[in-house]
């Protein structure tokens, strides 16, 4: 059997999976059939990534080193016959990525042991791999909350001349999953053609990109489910589930040569309609308690909701609430007689308060009430009409009053009457409507019939 009968590496507690930042320890054990001259016994721990452009090729076209540590556990001398063990311990860097093995590349971690012998003698070596797992917490992935949805419209030709359209919408219930969870896929297909479609299908896909000079893409179908067809002119809603098997995580943080992506592909076998829904595969599942609130009220909106509506301006209050005065009401002027009221209704209203006394078309302010505004009772019905118009109630057919009276205001403060007086403030008001004078008119040629004649006819 030769001088070296056994040569092996053992990890403490037979542990083979570690996390970045953890230490790995164990022993190197060998058994000799007879004494052996050696220069040194060395133990090496290293991690690297190697990729190639050809499947399962061992000569890497690109490499990336993560760490490489070597220690010497025995110096130059003679190894005696029998079983001997030497301990070792290494610290794994916290930046090392997760182990991975694909068709065009690998991320490898291993511990190797060497027995260096004198010149022309045979060297001995052994190695043992271990695996690194850097947990991917889906709750820390950006934009991970909510549903993943997509839609596509495809127009196709069938029977050489006819054309049809298929509308397809699909969504997943989440954007991140862990192995063992179920992906809920909801698909809506509207077949706007005269031909039935092929079977519906949903697949969980893995796409691995190897960053060589010309990137290599390895796309594989992990799981697939199939549904029925959609008849001509029909709309179908299809619900399906896909169980996530044990898979490498989406992110290989710390590795620049390999990129892993997952997505759900939904499509029809005919016509060729397909859409993709990107998802993440991690190690720590989503926790709904950590989901941020979508309806966060802004301070401005909260203030607007808590603050009641502002009161209307005084003018608006007058127009909407006739019984409430916009300001403390002054002492009213002496109420004129009925004949005086009839005269004032046909008189123009007073000018605005900022006009000076004696303005053209205005009425002097009553000297008996300095710094007081004149007021009058206004019918609530007057506010439904245009400013400046006043429609009194219970009018008596009396002539104009000769007694002087204070200025009368219409429903709109400051509005002028449609027909201002011509002879000053003290003259008789001009009638609003004058009857036509048929006697002086050139047309018609004949005088109009009298009132009695019109009533008889």
Give an overview of the whole structure.
- A hairpin with a 7-residue loop joins strand 10 and strand 11.
- 6% of the residues lie in helices and 37% in strands.
- It has four helices and 20 strands.
- Among the domains are: 4-132, Immunoglobulin-like (Sandwich); 140-290, Immunoglobulin-like, CATH 2.60.40.
- Strands 2, 5, 6, 9, 10 and 11 form a six-stranded mixed sheet that branches. Strands 14-20-19-16-17 form a five-stranded mixed sheet, with no helix packed on it. Strands 12-13-15-18 form a four-stranded antiparallel sheet, with no helix packed on it.
- The protein is mainly beta and 457 residues long.
* Number of E-state strands: 20
Shape: elongated
Identify low-pLDDT runs: 295-326, 336-433
Helix content: under 10%
Sheet/helix structural class: mainly beta
CATH topology label of the domain at 140-290? Immunoglobulin-like
N-to-C span: 149 Å
Q: How many whole angstroms does the radius of gyration measure? A: 50 Å
What's the CATH architecture name of the domain at 140-290? Sandwich
Strand content: 35-45%
- Tally of alpha and pi helices: 4
Could you report the average pLDDT, rounded to the nearest whole number?
A: 74
Oligomer: single chain
Please give the CATH class of the domain at 140-290. Answer: Mainly Beta
Q: Major sheet: size, sense and barrel closure?
A: 6 strands, mixed
Series of H and E elements: EEEEEEEEEEEEEEEEEEEEHHHH
Task: Note the main attributes of this structure.
ubiquitin-like ligase-substrate adaptor activity; mainly beta; about 450 residues; about 35% strand; six-stranded mixed β-sheet; 20 strands; Immunoglobulin-like; single chain; five-stranded mixed β-sheet; Arrestin_domain-protein
């Amino acid at each position: 059997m030769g001088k070296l009968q056994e040569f092996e590496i053992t990890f403490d507690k037979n542990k083979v999976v570690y996390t970045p930042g953890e230490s790995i320890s164990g022993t190197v054990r060998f058994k000799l059939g007879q004494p052996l001259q050696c220069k040194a016994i060395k133990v090496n721990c290293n991690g690297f990534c190697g990729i190639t452009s050809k499947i399962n090729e061992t000569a890497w076209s690109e490499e990336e080193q993560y760490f490489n540590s070597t220690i010497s556990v025995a110096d130059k001398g003679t190894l005696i016959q029998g079983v001997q063990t030497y301990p070792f311990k290494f610290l794994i860097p916290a930046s090392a990525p997760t182990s991975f093995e694909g068709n065009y590349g690998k991320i490898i971690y291993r511990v190797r042991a060497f027995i260096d012998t004198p010149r022309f003698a045979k060297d001995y070596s052994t190695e043992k791999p271990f695996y690194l797992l850097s947990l991917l917490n889906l709750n820390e992935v950006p934009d991970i909350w909510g549903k993943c949805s997509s839609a596509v419209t495809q127009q196709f030709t069938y029977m050489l001349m006819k054309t049809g359209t298929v509308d397809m919408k699909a969504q997943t219930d989440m954007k991140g999953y862990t192995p063992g969870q179920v992906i809920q896929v909801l698909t809506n297909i509207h077949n706007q053609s005269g031909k039935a479609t092929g079977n519906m299908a949903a697949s969980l896909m893995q796409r691995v990109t190897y960053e060589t000079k010309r990137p290599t893409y390895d796309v594989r179908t992990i799981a697939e489910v199939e549904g029925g067809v959609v008849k001509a002119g029909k709309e179908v809603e299809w619900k399906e589930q896909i169980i996530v098997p044990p898979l490498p995580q989406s992110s290989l943080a710390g590795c620049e040569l390999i990129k892993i992506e997952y997505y759900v592909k939904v499509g029809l076998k005919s016509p060729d309609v397909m859409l993709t829904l990107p998802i993440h595969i991690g190690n720590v599942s989503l926790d709904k308690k950590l989901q941020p609130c979508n309806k966060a009220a802004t301070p401005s909106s909260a203030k607007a909701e808590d603050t009641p509506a502002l009161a209307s301006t005084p003018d608006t209050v007058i127009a909407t609430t006739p019984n409430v005065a916009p300001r403390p009401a002054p002492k009213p002027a002496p109420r004129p007689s009925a004949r005086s009221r009839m005269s004032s209704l046909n008189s123009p209203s007073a000018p605005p308060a900022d006009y000076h006394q004696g303005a053209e078309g205005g009425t002097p302010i009553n000297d008996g009430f300095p710094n007081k505004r004149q007021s009058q009772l206004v019918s609530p019905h007057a506010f439904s009409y245009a400013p400046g118009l006043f429609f009194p109630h219970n009018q008596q057919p009396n002539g104009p009053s000769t007694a002087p009276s204070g200025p009368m205001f219409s429903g709109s403060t400051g509005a002028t009457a449609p027909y201002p007086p011509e002879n000053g403030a003290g003259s008789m008001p001009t009638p609003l409507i004058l009857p036509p004078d048929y006697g002086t008119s050139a047309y018609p040629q004949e005088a109009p019939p009298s009132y009695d004649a019109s009533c008889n006819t």
